[in-house]
Amino acid sequence: MYTDPDTGEDEVQVKAVDALLERQFGSGHVNQPDGVYPPSHIRLKGTNYDGLSGKRWQLVECLWGRKSMPVTDVIEAVWGADADPTGGALTSLCKHLNAWFRKESCPLAVQTRKGHVRLVHTGAAGKK
After folding, report:
1. pLDDT over 90 for what percent of the chain?
2. What are the helix (H) ranges across the chain?
3. CA distances from 46 to 32, 68, 73, 90, 117 (A)
4. What pLDDT does 125 receive?
5. In the sheet where 116-121 sits, what is the strand order?
6. Please, which pLDDT band fits residue 112 given cuts at 50, 70 and 90?
7. pTM, entire model
8. What is the CATH classification number for the domain harbouring 62?
9. Please, which residues bridge with residue 42 across strands?
10. At CB < 8 A and 24+ separation, what contacts does 83-92 make?
11. What angle do CA 9, 28, 20 make, to 5 degrees?
């Protein structure tokens, strides 16, 4: 059996910890910076949130790292160029995404104001 001379950890321990972290967070999610990661993962302030899918995922992905986006640009990014900007789909999507953030104790929220959409940090505590 191999023992790391720097840390004193043996190879079996290291592999067991790596396997546990991979099962919990998926491959490569352990030391990633904050951001959105396909297909359904958000990392924020060292906490992983997983389970976003479909249009909710697309909305977070298009807003991440931006101050705000015009509603028409968001609708095009999420639903495509032929989408109807007058329908209530964006309002409904924002409502469902905000409910998911609350359920997951993720301190984010989507806000629409003055023709723009933005992703904001709510300051609420992360996962318990």
Report:
1. 50
2. 11-25, 54-63, 71-79, 89-103
3. 8, 24, 30, 29, 25
4. 56
5. 69-70, 116-121, 108-113
6. very high
7. 0.72
8. 1.10.10.10
9. 36, 49
10. 90/117
11. 50
Residues 6+ positions from 60 with CB-CB distance below 8 Å:
36, 42, 52, 97, 108, 119
Q: What is the pLDDT of residues 12-63, one digit of tens each?
A: 555 565 555 566 555 555 567 889 988 888 999 889 999 998 999 999 999 9
Whole-angstrom Cα distance, residue 80 to residue 74?
9
The two structure tokens encoding residue 97: 């995404």
Residue 77 near residue 114 (C-beta atoms within 8 A)? no
Q: How many domains does the chain have?
A: 2
- Same domain for 75 and 110, yes or no, is yes
Domain match, 24 and 63 both? no
Residue 128 domain-assigned (yes or no)? no
